[in-house]
User: What shape does this take?
Amino acid sequence: MHTLNYLLLAVKDPQRSAKLYDQLFGVAPVENSPTFVLYVLPNGLKVGFWSASDVKPTPRPAGGVELSFSLPDEASVRQTFAAWTALGLEVLQEPTRMDFGFTFVVADPDGHRLRPFVLAENPR
Assistant: This one.
């Protein structure tokens, strides 16, 4: 059995990404160089940001990965929306109810989608 425990995202500027994700993740990276930044989140998941110009083979296209963040309640989703839009992140979807729960989507500077959500009590 293979364990998924590491996400690697191609980005234009890992240092710019680190400035944003330091705030979003609430932890400092465990590795931080001009071409690569690595976070180990409290749940053990590793998330790396690698300079797209250094990734071999070259990714196609850069951006477009969606990272989802489960939150405890709708108020937390609304608070996160306010905090993240204050960071200047592009809003792709305003807070809304969907079949699975309450959510919104913003994009980081590389086009990766960030989706906080709370599950509906009785999802369809």
